[in-house]
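INFO batch 0412 | record 1 of 1 | parsing
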Amino acid sequence: MTALTLSTAGAATLRADALVVGVAKGPKGPVVAAGAEAVDKAYDGKLAAVLDALGASGAEGETTKLPAPDGLKVPVVLAVGLGPVPEKDESYDEEALRRAAGAASRALHGTKKAAFALPLEDASAITAVAEGALLGAYAFTAYQGGEKKAGKGAEKNGGPKQPLAEVVLLGAKPRDKEHKAAVERASIVATEVNIARDLINTPPNDLTPEAFAAVASATAKEHGIKVQVLDEKALTKGGFGGIMGVGKGSENPPRLVKIAYTHPDAEKHLAFVGKGITYDSGGISLKPAGHNETMKCDMSGAAAVFTSVVAVAKLGLPVNVTGWLALAENMPSGSATRPGDVLRMYSGKTVEVLNTDAEGRLVLGDALTKASEENPDAIVDVATLTGAMVLALGNRTFGIMANDDAFRTSIHEIAEEVGEASWPMPLPADLRKGMDSPTADIANMGERMGGGLVAGLFLQEFVGEGITWAHLDIAGPAFHEGAPYGYTPKGGTGSAVRTLVRLAERTATGDLG
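INFO prediction complete | emitting tokens
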């Protein structure tokens, strides 16, 4: 993890390998942002003109490297775009700061130490810049470099370029309690997002349900979180027909993991439920070529739930949070569930399986019922559930469904606040009829149009009566296949972790809409 420190040193006096400054997009060209005054002075007040001559505009995410002039104790200045200049009396948007810091960190991979002289008007801005810098510095290199070990000399020997090693935030006061708390929170959250990314990026031959459960167990115990793992024998004996039905085609048996963080002063209890399909071939309803190469990411929901509970524990929030990881591998074999089979779920409800590639709702159904037994104040499930949601909202936005409009609105507001794009979606009652089955209580498929909403309606059937519930379909933003941008890398993104942590914070303080 990249080191993060605060410093009141001036931008012109701190020694580092690079100095990051912000530049905004003005009506007549780039405008040097607050925090970079000393740097601009070193360029004789012509930094904006130099950037303009090089074609820089200050557009969001744009990075421009310059040789540092005399007067600075760094060899390189990196100007990063913040987007449009704020209106009078307004500050830079926190997400703009977060993305700019992330873009800067990415541009400085292979650098040991960089000082960030971005606008830091308050603790919220410090949190945003710190988060962005740490998230942007992420790289998944565990499987790169052949036999060469990562570390000192690895890059020279052909190993992968290492992330920015140290970030210094200039203008943030290390002895200010509010500033210190802002950075500590950012470090905790960014660490857990990056761990979620690691899990998502890990190849499925190494991250089986058993292996994932082992990681969750070891980490939970390390942070004083109670853990319980149900293996295939316990799941069979307990009647978890959904999880076992999905996992029985694989040589790697399923697991249901419960991790429970409790606080003595807690007045509320949240349950987070995550879909953890460590690899999804589609089962007997096999995915076509071109649709299964990235299916190691189908456990992104469970990764988000696991790491968010750990983050809540590290933050010591006065709220009880229980995470449920529904882990299975969906494979075709002679023992796999067939289209037309009927599964008896943990709730007792029977499900006719019309498509074995609609497996996430089956493992979640069992986990939702189990979570409901504890009667939490609210349940939130997170899943890479449907391609239909990607078609509806694109690759960067997750959908939110809920059985309570106010709760859905609160989660949407929280997600937007922390910089995770989301959109509230309905649960139209008329789509429920399409899941009627002549054989079982319900089918796992319904109408093709509105498939993401149909999946939400299916999950709702397994939520305990009277319990507030929301479903986050993160199929779009969970795994990024394009070029990196802002603080978002190629591969696993850790989508929904920041939303879940902020939900826990809001619940702990009683400030939940």
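INFO post-check: The chain has a mean pLDDT of 95.
INFO record closed
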